[in-house]
């Protein structure tokens, strides 16, 4: 996923979480959804939904994909766990607006929009700034669609002020969370391409010896360019390949070297005299 590549910001890619951390984060999401379902059910007793059948269908829908998620996470390998966790969170964004619709909007309690920030937190954890941009974009489109549907079905006024105000709030929240993730948690600031300083960042040493890794010629080329500080888009241009292909090669390198970020890949490869 390279939603920022057209802005030239892909060099600010966050250090990747380990597969174990991603799995724990995805599992936490499946646990949190159950209280969320219970809350929606209890809320329907206090604030009757516009469509009781619609709410029941949404609750069943969330139950089904959350149950699937629990099974899929337990069976997923390290390469597919990120896709599963990301997919579950994106399904949550859709379900969020479906719940708001069946209740006929949020009325005076517009602060319920703030609950969406939790979904931004999850997407930032998975994909850094790109996850924030994607989640905020979904919120803006979702708000426009929600108020348009409310106006068409329930004959309510279009809440343009709510759409604009909360969209701006989510943009700011997404930017803050992405910056915090990048600078504080990631602990790696972008460096000029080709700079060795980008690779001289102290990172935790993974436990256990890293087994010898055999690389294909193409993986060796990608590894060499990563060690020189090239971003994915720069590597793609240098090797005349698509950016998605380069992303796949980099992800494979992270997995094969049991590394959490590009610096750890370079360090592990250097210890094995691969670069």
Describe this structure in words.
This protein is 66% helix and 0% strand. With 275 residues, the chain is mostly helical. The protein has helices at residues 19-46, 52-75, 81-102, 116-154, 160-185, 217-227, 232-239, 243-256, 262-271. The model is unreliable at 1-13 and 187-211 (pLDDT under 50). It contains nine helices and no strands. The relative contact order is 0.12. Helix 3 runs parallel beside helix 4, helix 4 runs antiparallel to helix 5 and helix 7 packs across helix 8 (243-256).
Helix content: 55-70%
Strand content: under 5%
**Continuous helix count:** 9
Q: Alpha-carbon distance between the termini? A: 27 Å
Largest sheet: none
Overall pLDDT: 82
Give the overall shape: elongated
List the helices and strands in order: HHHHHHHHH
**What is the radius of gyration?**
21 Å
Class computed from helices, strands and strand pairing = mainly alpha
How many strands appear in the DSSP assignment? 0
Low-pLDDT stretches are 1-13, 187-211
**What count of domains describes the coordinates?**
2
Question: Which helices and strands occur, and which strands form pairs?
Answer:
Layout (H helix, E strand, L loop, with lengths): L18 H28 L5 H24 L5 H22 L13 H39 L5 H26 L31 H11 L4 H8 L3 H14 L5 H10 L4
């Amino acid at each position: 996923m390279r939603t920022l590549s057209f802005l030239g910001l892909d060099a600010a890619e966050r250090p990747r979480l380990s597969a174990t951390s991603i799995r724990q984060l995805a599992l936490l999401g499946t646990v949190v959804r159950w209280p969320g379902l219970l809350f929606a059910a209890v809320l329907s007793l206090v604030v009757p939904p516009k469509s009781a059948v619609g709410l029941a269908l949404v609750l069943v829908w969330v139950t089904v994909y959350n149950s699937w998620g629990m099974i899929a996470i337990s069976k997923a390998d390290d390469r597919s766990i990120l896709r599963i966790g990301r997919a579950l969170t994106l399904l949550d964004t859709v379900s969020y607006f479906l719940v708001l619709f069946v209740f006929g909007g949020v009325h005076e309690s517009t602060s319920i929009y703030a609950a969406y920030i939790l979904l931004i937190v999850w997407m930032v954890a998975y994909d850094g700034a790109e996850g924030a941009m994607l989640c905020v974009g979904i919120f803006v489109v979702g708000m426009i669609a929600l108020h348009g549907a409310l106006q068409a079905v329930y004959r309510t006024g279009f809440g343009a002020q709510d759409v604009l105000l909360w969209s701006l709030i989510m943009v700011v929240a997404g930017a803050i969370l992405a910056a915090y993730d990048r600078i504080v948690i990631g602990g790696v600031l972008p460096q000029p391409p080709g700079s060795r300083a980008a690779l001289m960042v102290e990172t935790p040493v993974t436990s256990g010896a890293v087994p010898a890794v055999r690389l294909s010629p193409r993986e060796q080329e990608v590894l060499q360019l990563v060690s020189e500080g090239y971003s994915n888009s720069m590597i793609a241009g240098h090797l005349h390949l698509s950016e998605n292909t380069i992303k796949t090669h980099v992800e494979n390198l992270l997995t094969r070297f049991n590394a959490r970020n590009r610096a750890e890949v370079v360090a592990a490869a250097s210890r094995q005299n691969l670069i």
